[in-house]
């Protein structure tokens, strides 16, 4: 698994133990190891792995968002007792309940609540199985990567006008990819992301709209040395020289 940034913010074991004691629930061991090693962040661009939070789902007990019957794993009232441990970028929730074996999936665009077995050896494997099962994919997202959350991440937004000047965003992404050295390249019909660990970020080309390009980097890296500053500035100069203007 590729780690986008070396600036990790691990969650202390004592904090997780305190949640278990206060909520009388057991947090999956693989999930705990993940937080203690990597901290919070986004896995493979689709799943936000978060600290355990017993407050997130309490308000949802007042709304009929999901179907509840005798066969449903939890009642509507039991939503108040669930501990949220993550959410997808689409707004789905991943949670646990003291009386339920496995992880509870609360989808945003579906009324059916499902439960997924927790793999105590690998939390990433559990997420991969949810991704394949719920989104009906044959294979999990590959290459797998993790984007840790920290306060140093800075986005720089650009408006792209190359299409009017005879160059598509895909052509610009290909040029950028060949011009510089990247640690990881992830591309599909909707988006291209070029990762570089040295700057703690990546360049994201939004093919779907053909207008937006974003450079993500970590401000702390800029203070670490001139070489990192030069790398960020070099990427910025490249973009600005190819029909990219800063979005105010």
UniProtKB/TrEMBL annotation:
InterPro entries: Knr4/Smi1-like_dom (IPR018958), Knr4/Smi1-like_sf (IPR037883). It comes from the Bacteria. Residues 10-118 form the Knr4/Smi1-like domain. This is SMI1/KNR4 family protein. It comes from Paenibacillus sp. AN1007.
């Amino acid at each position: 698994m590729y780690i986008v940034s070396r600036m990790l913010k691990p969650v202390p074991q004592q904090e997780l133990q305190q949640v278990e004691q206060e909520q009388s629930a057991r947090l999956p061991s693989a999930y705990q190891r993940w937080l203690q090693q990597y901290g919070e962040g986004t896995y493979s661009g689709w799943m936000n792995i978060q600290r355990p939070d017993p407050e997130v789902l309490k308000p949802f007990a007042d709304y009929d968002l999901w179907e509840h019957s005798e066969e449903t794993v939890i009642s509507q009232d039991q939503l108040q007792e669930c501990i949220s441990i993550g959410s997808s970028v689409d707004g789905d929730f991943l949670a646990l309940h003291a009386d339920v074996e496995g992880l509870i999936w609360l989808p945003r665009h579906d009324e059916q609540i499902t439960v997924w077995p927790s793999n105590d050896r690998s939390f990433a494997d559990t997420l991969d199985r949810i991704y394949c099962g719920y989104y009906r994919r044959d294979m999990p997202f590959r290459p797998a990567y993790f984007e840790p959350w920290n306060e140093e991440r800075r986005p720089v937004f650009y408006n792209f006008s190359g299409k009017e000047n005879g160059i598509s965003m895909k052509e610009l992404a290909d040029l950028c990819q060949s011009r510089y050295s990247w640690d990881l390249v992830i591309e599909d019909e909707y988006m291209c992301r070029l990762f570089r660990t040295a700057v703690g970020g990546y360049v994201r080309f939004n093919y779907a709209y053909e207008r937006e390009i974003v450079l993500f980097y970590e401000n702390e890296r800029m203070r670490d040395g001139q070489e990192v500053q030069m790398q960020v500035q070099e990427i910025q100069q490249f973009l600005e020289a190819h029909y990219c203007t800063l979005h105010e």
